[in-house]
């Protein structure tokens, strides 16, 4: 609704306002500086002659100049190769079970996929005696230090369902009024 109102005011008497602007006297442009007109200087015959004339003294000096260019020796950093992926990187098949369609099929050794990470964390949470850090490291081709860190810092969520009596007790509770 507001757009219609503003459009009416914007278009009110627009033709008369446009004619008034067009019929105004145009201001005279500012005068140009002398040096801004280089085309008149380039037309003078003295300057053209000076540009086209060859100076023998400068030519002999130019022939004496010899430039030799060398590239600096290439230095290879020792630690630079560890960040680049190797062409012969070993891969292993993933152990996904029923979630096979959700994830990648092959991962490099020493790494795990997201679905595998969730699976091993859940297995360790449900059966910590069977799924120890050593067994997980051997099963998924991981380092023991990394598996210990994974099990220590990443914990899968737990869904807790409250009994129905507790829900009724919570909903029937009336908040106290502050005075």
From TrEMBL:
<dbReference type="GO" id="GO:0032981">
    <property type="term" value="P:mitochondrial respiratory chain complex I assembly"/>
</dbReference>
<dbReference type="GO" id="GO:0005739">
    <property type="term" value="C:mitochondrion"/>
</dbReference>
<feature type="region of interest" description="Disordered">
    <location>
        <begin position="20"/>
        <end position="41"/>
    </location>
</feature>
<dbReference type="Pfam" id="PF06784">
    <property type="entry name" value="UPF0240"/>
</dbReference>
<dbReference type="InterPro" id="IPR009622">
    <property type="entry name" value="NDUFAF4"/>
</dbReference>
<comment type="subunit">
    <text>Binds calmodulin. Interacts with NDUFAF3.</text>
</comment>
<comment type="similarity">
    <text>Belongs to the NDUFAF4 family.</text>
</comment>
<protein>
    <recommendedName>
        <fullName>NADH dehydrogenase [ubiquinone] 1 alpha subcomplex assembly factor 4</fullName>
    </recommendedName>
</protein>
């Amino acid at each position: 609704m507001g757009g219609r109102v503003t459009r009416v005011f914007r278009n009110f008497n627009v033709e008369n306002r446009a004619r008034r602007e067009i019929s105004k006297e145009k201001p005279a442009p500012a005068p140009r500086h002398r040096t801004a007109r280089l085309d008149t200087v380039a037309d003078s015959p003295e300057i053209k002659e000076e540009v086209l004339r060859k100076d023998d003294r400068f030519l002999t000096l130019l022939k004496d100049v010899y430039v030799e260019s060398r590239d600096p020796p290439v230095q290879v950093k020792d630690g630079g190769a560890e960040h680049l992926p190797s062409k012969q990187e070993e891969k292993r098949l993933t152990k996904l079970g029923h979630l096979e369609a959700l994830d990648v099929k092959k991962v490099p050794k020493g790494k795990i996929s997201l679905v595998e990470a969730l699976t091993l964390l859940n297995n360790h949470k449900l059966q910590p005696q069977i799924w120890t850090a050593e067994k997980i490291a051997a099963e998924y081709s991981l380092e023991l230090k990394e598996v210990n860190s994974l099990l220590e810092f990443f914990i899968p969520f737990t869904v807790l369902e409250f009994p129905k009596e507790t829900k009724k007790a919570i909903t029937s509770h009336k908040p106290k009024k502050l005075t």
